[in-house]
Design goal:
The protein has a single domain, classed as Porin (Beta Barrel), CATH 2.40.160. The radius of gyration is 17 Å and the shape is elongated. It is of the alpha+beta class. It has 1 helix and 9 strands. A hairpin with a 3-residue loop joins strand 8 and strand 9. It has an 8-stranded antiparallel β-barrel. The N terminus is likely disordered.
Amino acid sequence: MMAAMNNNKSMHRNLLFIAGLLFAALPVTTAHAGDLYFGAKAGPMQVDIGGADDPTNGALVLGYGQGIALGQLALEGELSTSLDNGTVRGREIEVDTAGAYVAFRSPGPVYFKARGGVVNVDTSVGGVSNSETGAAYGVGLGFGIGVAQVEVEITAMENDARFFSIGVQF
């Protein structure tokens, strides 16, 4: 019980740290014309646990992009949680993540996306939690539809989790 409480405190500290980094960076970028965007995505969160039926996660994304000569550079914050828990040997698996990323999108209505950053991953198996913070990187493809963009991507996390997602942002 105490270990789970300490993991929750650690995750909350990490979330506050990540949020602080994003908000600290906004005044630097708001001096130039840029775009604030938000979105949602969902997909399987593949965990490296043998015999596991992986959970399905949903995520909220908040970003701030700045046009550059070769496309767009952006800061993104992302929070995800299990919408449908996975299982392993009869025990439920839940995965919650909180990440801060620098993302690049190539120009055009159909574009390539690459991102890298830091993420906190809190994995719970049968009520026993483990929280780790490490590097994460991802790639994807997107296309614009009016005021929205649809993106398909994969994000790999240092602690052997991978988030395959499809989402929309405005």
